[in-house]
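Example record for the data management plan.
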Amino acid sequence: MCLSRKAQEEKSKESDEWLSSLQYLNTNINDLTISESFLDTGSKLDDLNDPAIKTLGWKADKPSNFAIKSNSKHITDSLGWFTDVPITLKDKEGKTVTVIGNFVRIDNGKTEPMLFFGMSNIRKVQGVPELNKNQFHIKLHGKAYIIPTFSKVPVVKDLPKEDRESSCEASLGSQVLANSSNPTSKEDLKKSAKSLKSVF
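Corresponding structural encoding:
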């Protein structure tokens, strides 16, 4: 189905707003580093996606049978509960902090391991995300920690001119994420903004 240009702009805007509201953090489970871990303050549940569970080789502790609607408007089925999962974080001083939480397994269609740190675990650690400072304040066992976070912003690849002219060809799939913690020159930012405008 082909979306109108206005519908594409609205869908892209919703997705961009949700992505730009996320604060990513570096996490580990056992020896698995999950670079696609983020705080999801709009979600009640904490999730691990299918590739993360398959990489860890785990079996569900408890069955689950419900659908999950995420903030990005996607609906996915739950595939089991995993209890007492040790999530390892590093604070800004390099100290290791382990948070134990319960996670639901989801299949969100992604190929990289992902961890969604929702309100259940955020409340458990008395977490306070500070978007403007790229920090996540937590309290665990009577001690306070500051966990560094970062954001990712959507950037659109340059498309061939004929693709830009067709509103059906300018899909959201042409977007890639860039880590905003990497230095970017003003010229690179202008080019990205210009190519984003040219797509829509």
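Summary line stored alongside the record: The two ends are 18 Å apart (CA to CA).
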